[in-house]
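Flp pilus assembly protein TadG
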Amino acid sequence: MIGRLKNSTALASLRRALPAGRFLRRFKDADGGVLAAPFIFMLLTMLAINGLGMDLVRHERDRAWLQNTLDRAVLAAADLDQPQTPAEVVLDYLSKAGLEEYYQEPIVETLPVGAVRPTSKKVTADVDMGFNNLWLNFTGSEEELPLTAHSVAIESIGKVEISMVLDVSGSMGSNNRLPNLKTAAKQFVETMEQNTEDGNLSISIVPYSTQVAMPQDFLDEYDVEIGNGLPGSYASAAADAKARSDARGWDYTNCVNFEASDFNTTALPSNQKYQRTMPFSVWGTTDYRTNDSRYVRDPVCTIHSDAPGRTALLFEDNVSTMQTYIDSFYAGENTSLDLGMKWGVALLDPSIQPKVAAVSENHADVIDPRFRDRPVPYNDTETLKVVVLMTDGQNTSQYYLKDDYRVGESDVWFDDDADVYSSYDEDNNRYYWHNVDIWADHPHGQQNSSTFICTTYYYSGGCYSGYYYNEVKSNDLENLTFEDLLAETSLPYMYSRLADEWMTWNAATNKWWYNAFGWYGRSTKDTRTRAICDAAKDEGIVVFTIGFEAPSGGQAVLEDCASSDAHYYDVEGLEIQDAFANIASTIRQLRLTE
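Predicted structure tokens:
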């Protein structure tokens, strides 16, 4: 029938679909959204990631702070002078930094083991703990981030070569300076020995005044002669002088007249010829020829047999030996910082090592065989080379004999049996007998003779009374060489006592004073001092200088010489002890090893 709807499956499905359409329309028109759950999940994830980052930042902050604090703590704990225990020091540092919760007992090692005064101290501190997380705990994780720190510090002196260059000039005898120096220097060597392992320390002590005297056995390893450096016309006389020295097996002096170029280098080349300083004195009218116990007083270069304490002490580590040696110092003569520094630096230069080895093998009393390998090369990074230069003054005159007065025979004879000098008058070919006060045709003691000596005269000039002087042939008559003459008779004695007896004053002073010697003045020596100091610093030698109540001129040179402003000490009185103590402390090598 037309117009009648039939019941069918298609129509039923359509009816069931109508509510769903309305749902879709409602969903389309709704404002509440459906992303709340995903958004919350994403937010929590972002917070967790950011929280993890914040925990990591906090962790790194605390780790760095802890590491830095621990580094400082072990450095302080490793100090050999630290009165507190390492545990107390480390805990104190961590507590003051608010990190005491991380404290753990440090490990301490000292060398020698159990020593009251260890020479090396090693402190190891570790932290291995968990870090308190904040944000990660919200994730439900109970895992802790590890918080670790490790620090090791060692304080030890290691290997050290030291040259102590000490002023013993005449001015050191004033204002209690020399006793104060002795006390300070003795404390210094004791401190260095106590804080250094056996075999790691060598100290050379170089006392200086006008010159510096070295052990003869050491100088014998070099070509050092009084005739070196002279023109060729002196060759024969120089050879004779060397032969005489070799024959007797010793030299009067063991000082060197260095050339200007020698101060531009720390080395002491073994293939170079050096001029030995002549034995002579410009101070006092003294004559010690009849005194068998000593030579001339106050010589430019001190003669070892007269004053062993003026001969440098080489490569030593025995405290008793060094302190006894320092106690033997006495004050006298001029000031030569340049010569003291030259020798002090040379004793640190590896160029002398073969000579040191030779001396230690043949003369163990001069250099102990334990030091045969010193000085070590400059590139030995385990060894510190140090010079301590001290003065109470400034450079003054350094004297040397001129060429004509160095080698050959003088015009003075000496009869040792009768203790009579004879002076030769070349112009009149005759000899003046001193003490006897007569002229003769030969030196006193050359033969047996009898000479009438008039003591009282008539007004007319004839002899009224007198006596016969009997000359006895001497078994010990010598035409003195310049070296032998001046080793026992000062230049002032020569012109004022011997020459003036038969020469005019002008002739006597010209011959035995103005023409006899020359000198280097302060300006030249200041230049040389600065040159050798620069050479030392260029080689990496650490230079400490001490101005002990020194004048401005000396202070200026010392300041230029020192490795830095901090290496220069300007002290008075007992402050010199503090200066040496500070230097001993500074020498220690404090280093963070890990």
